[in-house]
Amino acid sequence: MGAAEEIAEFAALLGELKQRSGLSYEALAKRAHMSTSTLHRYCRGDGVPADYAVVSRMARLCGATPEELVELHRRWVLADAARERGRRAVAPAPGAGGAPAPQEGAPPVSVPAPTSVEEPAHRPRRKHWPLIAAAVALVVTVATALTLDRDDGAPSAHGTAPGRATAAPLTVSTRTYGWDDPQCEGKYLVDRPPAEVAPPVMGQDVPGWVKAHRAVAADEQRVALTVQGTGDEAVVIESMHVGVADSAPPPAWNAYLGSSGCGGGVETRSFDTNLDAPHPVLSPKAGQRGFPYKVSRTDPEVLYITAHADTHDVHWYVDLQWNSAGRQGTIRLNDHGRPFRTSGSRGRPVYEFLVGGTHWYRDA
Predict the structure, then answer these.
(1) 360, 114 in Cβ contact below 8 A?
(2) What CA–CA distance (Å, rounded) separates 218 from 173?
(3) pTM
(4) Across the chain, where does the E strand assignment appear?
(5) What pLDDT digit, counting tens, does each position of 61-94 carry?
(6) Strand partners, 112
(7) Is 23 strand, coil or helix?
(8) Which residue in 1, 119, 133, 259 could disulfide with 34, CB within 3.0 to 4.6 Å?
(9) Taking the alpha carbons of 76, 78, 79, 84 in that order, is the dihedral positive or negative?
(10) Total domain count for the chain?
């Protein structure tokens, strides 16, 4: 099945649920916190939501059954992966025209920042960030860094190792900030005073904000891994293991509350890991079963990892072990070729930016 067909199948089920609900496009869009034109695009197959929470919210408003929610999630995973493949196919190679590829150590992107910081005598009551049409969870696709036969040994922390490489019969896409509800708040450590930190952003704008400020996920980080086979033959995901590339005391930076946090949504395959432990392990969340899982081109899986850190600043990665038709290998998963990074923020000053405000307030 091609990309167009996968997107069309997702749109067809979404449109069917909308039609069955009896709600107009305007009424459903209003309840789902999006524009009418955006909802039209999704139901026509002209666009695919980058965040499943948006899909789930629409489906529940339409009265979808649990079985329909499972099938809608499967179709969304396929459509989202197809959309991402299309985006990568037309993206220019670094240095081949367009914007130059970012260089290590390059100065951060210039962003607007508030001009003052105040300590209010009476702190205003905290408000939740409103859901808006553009507030979709970001999708940052990370190419699988390396696949090796097990006889070749484990890959190094930098994604290279001696031996013969084997093409894996699966692909993995990673959302580095895989929060399902863009209304919730995350926390980030930034080595800047409040006056030099731009207001928090939502959804697809988070990666730019993080990169511009060289921000680090504080206390916990949720990574979503979409694993999909490249053919009809089943691929068994035998296990995943957390590896630590480096661990140090947390940096003495300020903590800022962002607008992309919490969990929730579809968590059929969810794991926690404690990065403060000498040897972090992945533990299934309550009620979830562990490995193995099977995937194919038509039956993907989304695996969620919530990494916690309290007393350390940890650079980490994930090794995914697979086997299929007598072949086996390991894929190293990371953040654009670099380890994920999660740090504790205990004892650091915490700032928040209230809705409608003009500057950061000291929260703690």
Answers:
(1) yes
(2) 23
(3) 0.62
(4) 147-148, 170-175, 187-190, 216-218, 220-229, 235-248, 254-257, 270-274, 283-284, 293-295, 301-308, 313-324, 327-333, 340-343, 350-352, 361-362
(5) 899 988 888 898 888 888 888 887 776 666 555 4
(6) none
(7) coil
(8) 133
(9) positive
(10) 2
